[in-house]
């Protein structure tokens, strides 16, 4: 078996397609790294304060314009938003004051977050309340474990990592695997080649599984190695950060039709359902889910390569199918209002392409985005495992039973 796998790896590396994939992957990961660097720490106190200043200036201009045009109601609304932003900015500037001990600033922020939670504590805002609870839990963890929180940080490699993984997993994996895996069988569908393979003292099943394991190993290996390089690069520039820092994950959701009339939404977070993990535990969870995701994607492309004889057609079908499914998921989660669930909301949780946003899956937010409380970290692993097994079994049955003339 290992000799077959080594032979398949040599064959794959020798192809021009592999060089193209490697070059594309390197370029795309470089772009993703640059994007993660530019957008790092969007919610860090320092950058939040900068955005609040911009927001205050914007709403003051809108208020001025509304008053000039006798739009009193709009002007009052803009005035309220200006005051809210000014109050939050005052808190943020106090948190950024290094002359104040870190513990005192943490207590101040927890007090501010609890105040915000109390102001909005209505049944229609359970999701917002849970987000505030998560922030409070994270800050309380720093206090309880005597950890320093750097309010003036510009970000670290660990903070940038979720953004990096999200960008890579959403589109780049489709490009990489769609090209690399889609012709591993159909690319050798020449009768002479297949006859030569099958005249060797090796069963068809072993030939197939050696090809499958090769593309799984190579696909995961390429992505993980380049991600590791990107992480090291970000760490050298920004610093790596504290791997023991807390992250709230596992938020559960529930359907609540009573919300529809008031908010237009039909799903909300279960208050108190989140729990804390360390940053390194979050990273391990993300990498495990990514490996399952890559393997499920490989399995689908492998199936297309087994069913379709023409290499170009199998690559095209795999790539276009996954791209369409991904676009549907993006439309549902980003462009549609979270109203009543439709047929797509019921189907998408069972499609492997719905789990490319692995950080949202781990945090639990993905259940709210897809309006499906079933979605959890374990559920996603189960669905991806099912796709791996089913796609491979169909590929195996088709290949083993295929007639060679």
TrEMBL record:
GO cellular component: plasma membrane
Signal peptide start-end: none
Residues annotated as transmembrane: 18-37, 208-238, 258-280, 287-308, 314-335, 347-367, 379-400
Pfam family, one: ABC2_membrane_2
Keyword Membrane (UniProt): yes
One GO molecular-function entry: ABC-type transporter activity
Protein known as: ABC transporter permease subunit
Organism: Clostridium senegalense
